[in-house]
Amino acid sequence: MNRESKQYRNQLQLNRVFRQFLPTLLLLVVSLLTFSSIVTIQGQPVRSASTSSMLEQNKAVIRRYYDELINQGNFDVADELIATDLVQHSKGTAQGREGIVQEMQNSHNVFSNFNIKIDDLIAENDKVVVRATVSGVHAGTWMNITATRKPVQFPSIDIFRVVDGKLQEHWDVTDRFGLMQQLEAASAPS
User: Fold this and answer.
1) pTM of the predicted protein model
2) Which residues contact 101 (CB under 8 A, 6 or more apart)?
3) Neighbours of 175 (CB within 10 A)
4) What is the pLDDT of residue 42?
């Protein structure tokens, strides 16, 4: 038997095996899709009611964090919204609930009218991503730059992991360079 006919026979055997297991394989795939929490139809996610509810609850926690704690400066809600042992992945910010509260208090002290506007809010599993615009008036010393009384505005992206209705982890990317440029340009002598 030559090599080509042996390859052909092997191919035929593989095809028979594949045809035998194809119905079982299809049933398994359909079962997995049916029972998974996320199914896509025409590329759009379809979520179970419990998954959608959890995502909406996590987004509500984040909205409340921004509205009440950050924008209104109501630091009394920190116990309700932030886990005591929050893991802070941002450089220069202390760990835990107290670290993030201290960071927000400092922001309010340095920038009057301190506000963070949520531009996008996206939730997936236990993570919530916020694309935001930070604004305020430079009213105190920040990074050795004395108060300029100039309005500033810069973008920020925050990622939170929410566990049991509280912020458990936080990552952020903030355009601090853009903020520095605004402050240095405003404080530079003419």
Assistant:
1) 0.71
2) 69, 75, 78, 82
3) 15
4) 54
